[in-house]
Amino acid sequence: MMQARLNVALLALLAPALSFAGDAISATEKQALNLHAIGMFVLFVGMTLFITKWAAGRTKSTADFYTAGGGITGFQNGLAIAGDYMSAATLLGLTALVYTKGVDGYIYMIAFFAGWPIILFLMAERLRNLGKFTFADITSYRLNQGKVRTMAAVSSLTVVCFYLVAQMVGAGQLIKLLFGLDYNIALFVVGALMMVYVTFGGMVATTWVQIIKACMLLAGGTLVMILAMSQFGFSFEKMMSQAISVHSLGEKLLFPGTLLPDPVTALSLGLGLMFGTAGLPHILMRFFTVTNAKEARKSVLYASGFVAYFFNVILLMGFAAIIIVGQNPEFFEGGKIGGKIVGGGNMIAMHLAKAVGGNLLLGFLSAVAFATILAVVSGLALAGAAAISHDIYARVIRKGKATETEELRVSRFASVGLGLVAIVLGIAFEKMNVAFMVALAFGIAASANFPVLILSMYWKGLTTRGAIAGGYAGLVAAVLFVVFSKSVWVTVLGNPQALFPYDQPALFSMPLAFLITFIVSKLDNSAEAEAERAQFDDQYVRAQTGFGAAEASSH
To answer: Which neighbouring-strand residues pair with 341?
Structure first.
């Protein structure tokens, strides 16, 4: 059976795939110069730079910079969240997964989707009512501002940095693959554009870049899917029967298989995806951009709809590619059907686009793939800048006495700094297995951010000591479990045997964070702790009513 080689680029972007593909990570080969793709990407960049100039004129305050003044509608925010969530890997990596594994690939996508009900029913409304700029505003609402914000900022920056580096490495490798440009050139282009979007346009520019990118991705994927399905008379049954007849798996295409090595890894992966998504700082930050709690809920519903639709598009593209790409010698090295795919296994979606729409559609889809990275790194950089300027500088160092002008200036310096760090680290990690970085990002989000955040909103007994102990315990545990796993301890560090038998830490580190938070909070009988518990009722009223929450700016 021909297997899709999940290369560094897409593994960096497609986090959970690391659990079963750790050893298959390899650098991509530079392809021929793709002028159609470069031309369309230049058009996209020109459009987004114009938006940034427009956004810069509207970014006057910290509220404008961090949250677009809270003036984004539920529909716009839903598209932007979907734009954050649907990466290049979603299009390329998951299409390749369906192409090789069939229905297993679709089940894997459902695991991605499972986190949205948690955000919708448990978090969206309270996030908007209790927060202002970052999720640390919520975790520290009735707790010690300095200690809790420092902990939240440390875990946020850790998540952001690892995820950002992974995206940068992925960007460089993807550009080699899709555009035929050098790796370092790609890094500088991505880093420079990210710094421009965030530094000058803030959340307004980042939001509209994400919206445009989401529309382009949805339109491009839909067009490829329609053109592909037209070759089967739009008959799903006809396409499936042909796919079964030519694929090496046969009827097993329609049944769950052995995508993951064992049930424990599968469960840990599912938990990491579900609760990691609900703990990612750049996703949480999006809920402070809407006008009120009602719009926050609407934005989750819209985002869920767009993501669900796109996952079904990918399913159809993957099965269509089995016949259209898998039976065409043009897309195999040496013209040998069943051999190595030209450009690597993750080029399936691109080859399908070329087969049904020629070089023009291939160029458009390649430009979209790169545009998705720009949107994601912009959101990450903004979340990192907010943690530095709002949480650490304004609240911890200046103890709430910093002026808006000072905070805004620090935010912009932080954005530039994060951009430069991302470029440097992207160059340094070019040849390195990035599996542990992505696993670490999701593991920390699920283990350090989510437990403290959800308990701060729902549990009266939470104290500062409990939040600090649990947050740091989750962070350290997630780091150690990933470092001691096979993907790092054996593959990267060269040790003979892994100290931790699983690649995904969430099943172990997240319950540990909850348990330590609970125990330490229960044992805390200090006067400070009693005062914190007494303030929960006031917090509850605001969480339900939004009374006292930040008002949206007029635009």
So the answer is: 332
